[in-house]
Recover the amino acids of this structure.
């Protein structure tokens, strides 16, 4: 029997049931699901149902360290965003003066 090639659309649907690996970024242990929820998003064309899943490391001490790292990253990103906004608000203080060349 010949195997037939699946279309891209069929492949994307078959990926929904596939089990993916989600290791912890620090220790490498497989993360566990803390909570999962569905949300319906409506745009001008149609509605889409999105499933969110929050995962955590099974090692509580490792999870605390990961949360500290994520908080530090979030703060740094927030500071960079504020710095960018402040830079954009300041007017440019570059002055250009054009002088005519002198005739000899």
């Amino acid at each position: 029997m010949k195997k037939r090639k699946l279309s891209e659309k069929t492949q994307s649907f078959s990926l929904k049931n596939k089990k993916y690996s989600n290791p912890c970024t620090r220790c490498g242990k497989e993360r566990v699901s803390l909570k999962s929820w569905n949300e319906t998003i409506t745009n001008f064309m149609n509605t889409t149902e999105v499933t969110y899943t929050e995962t955590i490391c099974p090692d509580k001490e490792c999870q605390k360290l990961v949360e500290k790292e994520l908080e530090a990253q979030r703060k740094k990103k927030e500071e960079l965003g504020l710095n960018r906004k402040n830079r954009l608000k300041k007017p440019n203080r570059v002055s250009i003066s054009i002088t005519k060349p002198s005739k000899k």
